[in-house]
Specification:
The chain folds into 2 domains: 276 residues, TIM Barrel (Alpha-Beta Barrel); 281 residues, TIM Barrel (Alpha-Beta Barrel). Strand 11, helix 13 and strand 12 form a beta-alpha-beta unit. With 590 residues, the chain is an alpha/beta fold. It is 43% helix and 16% strand.
Length: 590
């Protein structure tokens, strides 16, 4: 068959096959990974399925290699599956269809870096003779550009299609929006076409496509056959082929020129779409599509303005939420801090994985009743993506401007049988998700902050993560307490290399026991042994005096390198924080 570019130029559309994995499972009653293994154990069955799709009208078929990577199979086994999958598809396609090397998503944090694993799989296909490639069901950009460049270096004539998988709300599991992902691919030099596949029905995919701008490259749509049901522990797609074809063909009005199907789409679905496509209205002169919205500025507030004012260094004070429902003491402490000039209260989200009053609800109460800026911490530990979005929508409606996104401490091992961690995101992906919501959903964006561990033994890693956070939308960082020379040196380096606002961490130590505990048992905190020694034998009054003295010295050391200060209230002792803030102002530090 002719080159895919020629097919698009002459016919206006290219039709792909459907969901090999689900169709194979339907015919053979098999489970996870059995489909790719069939390249070795049942090659005749795989070839039959390919031929059924070609007979139904598919002009392009994907190799049966979606899960073929080293995260799922040993390397030698993976090479065999890819080689066999390519040979089977080529035999089935003959001169009637194009063959695309199918590369599924590689999980960040797997055995290999995404760019290395994508590159390995792409090399296997290039060696086999592939010139057409489809990266499908990916949820973020990581590793794709590098793999595309590698493919083009080996085969300059290659055609590379990248399809992203997003939820009905328009965001991928990794927190990236469809608009952001497609715009990125449209601007990526070595990608020839891009689109959406999987997760969505054709109807919901059309709803997303209608909101997207027009892109310069060919646009693909490979939706699912509706949504699955589970019966007797097996997944079924029951939507009719005729309805799928009607809805999928309608995508042509949004500029789609590459069609096909994903999960649940059988040869019957592809045949129905083949018959329906000539009747579909194509986007010859489409009405102007909306542009991707720029990030909507956050509501104005004194705290952010202070961070941006070189003459000011605002105070962010952390006041942990209570473990019980009575808020009298907490609200009294917040009022005391407000009266003393705290610019914002930050509220930890179940610190050390112990249940406390919800940080976001408490932030709304502070802002509503005291008129005070509040910054809830938001961990990835306890919420899936839906819960995170629901919470962020509520925070936005309540006028909260600031969020600190952190991964969150893991649950203690003895409780894992009772309460399960979620970790749908890590902190960087959560930041990207919040940033995307601010661009495409919310009326106003959040100022997103991240944590910066200046006490890390390997600060290179922390700095690399911080730069990734900035790329994902972080505008500022709250550091861990700076109580060692190494922490101060790392802060200076962060100031040179990061562009975001930095709030230097100050954690007053109130006793020798407190000092030993912090330096021994709290992750991310380091205390100079000389400081620990100063507290030996000190009573409460002497401990508080030392806390003020050491905190002020730390503030003086870090002042030239920070945009504000982040004070952590020990044991609810807000009066101590007030003393430190007043003395810092008297010395001209804030």
């Amino acid at each position: 068959m002719q080159d895919v570019r020629e097919t698009l130029a002459q016919q206006g559309v290219v039709l792909f096959d459907g969901g090999m994995g689900t169709f194979y499972a339907q015919r053979n009653r098999t489970g996870h990974l059995a489909c790719e293994m069939a390249n070795l154990t049942a090659p005749e069955e795989v070839e039959v399925i390919h031929r059924l799709y070609v007979k139904a009208g598919a002009q392009a078929i994907k190799t049966n290699t979606f899960n073929a990577n080293r995260d799922n199979f040993p390397e030698a086994h993976c090479r065999e599956i890819i080689r066999s999958g390519w040979e089977i598809a080529c035999r089935a396609a003959g001169e009637d269809a194009l063959v695309f090397a199918d590369i599924g998503p590689v999980a960040a944090g797997g055995g290999q870096a995404p760019e290395e694993e994508y590159g390995f799989v792409a090399d296997c296909f290039s060696e086999a003779g592939a010139v057409n490639f489809i990266f499908e069901s990916v949820g973020e950009e990581a590793g794709i550009a590098e793999a595309a460049r590698r493919i083009k270096a080996a085969r300059p004539e290659a055609f590379i299609l990248v399809c992203f998988a997003v939820q009905p709300d328009g965001f991928s599991r990794e927190g990236r929006s469809a608009g952001q992902l497609l715009a990125w691919a449209d601007g990526c030099r070595n990608i020839d076409a891009m689109g959406l596949n999987c997760v969505l029905s054709a109807h919901h995919m059309a709803g997303l496509m209608a909101k997207l701008p027009r892109f310069s490259k060919p646009l693909a749509a490979l939706p699912n056959a509706g949504y699955p049901t589970v019966r007797a522990n097996r997944v079924f797609y029951d939507g009719s082929a005729a309805y799928f074809a009607q809805e999928a063909a309608g995508l042509r009005q949004y500029g789609v020129t590459i069609f096909g199907g994903c999960c649940g789409t059988t040869p019957e679905h592809i045949g129905a779409l083949k018959r329906r496509l000539p009747l579909a209205e194509k986007a010859i002169c489409p009405s102007p599509a909306p542009s991707l919205r720029e990030k909507v500025p956050c509501r104005q507030d004194d705290f952010w303005d202070g961070l941006c004012d070189a003459a000011r260094k605002p105070f962010a004070v952390e006041l942990d939420p209570p473990e019980a429902a009575n808020l009298d003491k907490y609200m009294a402490g917040a009022r005391e801090l407000q009266a003393a000039g705290a610019d914002i209260i930050t509220i930890a989200d179940c610190p050390i994985a112990r249940a406390r009053m919800d940080a976001s609800l408490l932030a709304c109460k502070l802002q509503r009743e005291l008129g005070m800026n509040a910054m809830p911490h938001m961990t990835c530990r306890d919420r899936n993506r839906n819960a995170a979005q629901a919470l962020l929508l509520g925070l936005s409606a309540e006028g909260i401007n600031h969020v600190l996104a952190v991964t969150g401490d893991p649950l203690p091992s003895q409780r894992r049988d009772e309460v399960q961690s979620v970790y749908h995101f890590n902190s960087r992906k959560l930041m990207a998700y919040i940033d995307g919501l601010g661009r495409e959903v919310l009326e106003h964006s959040f100022h997103v902050f991240g944590a910066l561990n200046v006490n890390a033994a390997n600060f290179d890693i922390q700095l690399s993560l911080a730069k990734e956070k900035e790329a994902n939308g972080a505008e500022g960082f709250l550091t861990q307490p700076i109580l060692t020379a190494r922490a101060l040196a790392n802060l200076k380096r962060a100031r040179r290399e990061l562009s975001g606002k930095i709030l230097g961490g100050i954690m007053p130590i109130v006793s020798h026991r407190n000092a030993v505990f912090l330096s021994s048992e709290v992750a991310g905190v380091a205390v100079d042994p000389a400081i620990v020694a100063r507290y030996e034998g000190a009573d409460r009054a002497r401990g508080e005096e030392l806390a003020v003295e050491i905190s002020l010295r730390s503030a003086e050391d870090m002042a030239p390198y920070v945009d504000g200060f982040y004070l952590m209230t020990p044991f609810g002792r807000t009066g101590l924080i007030v003393r430190i803030m007043e003395e810092m102002r008297r010395r001209g530090l804030a």
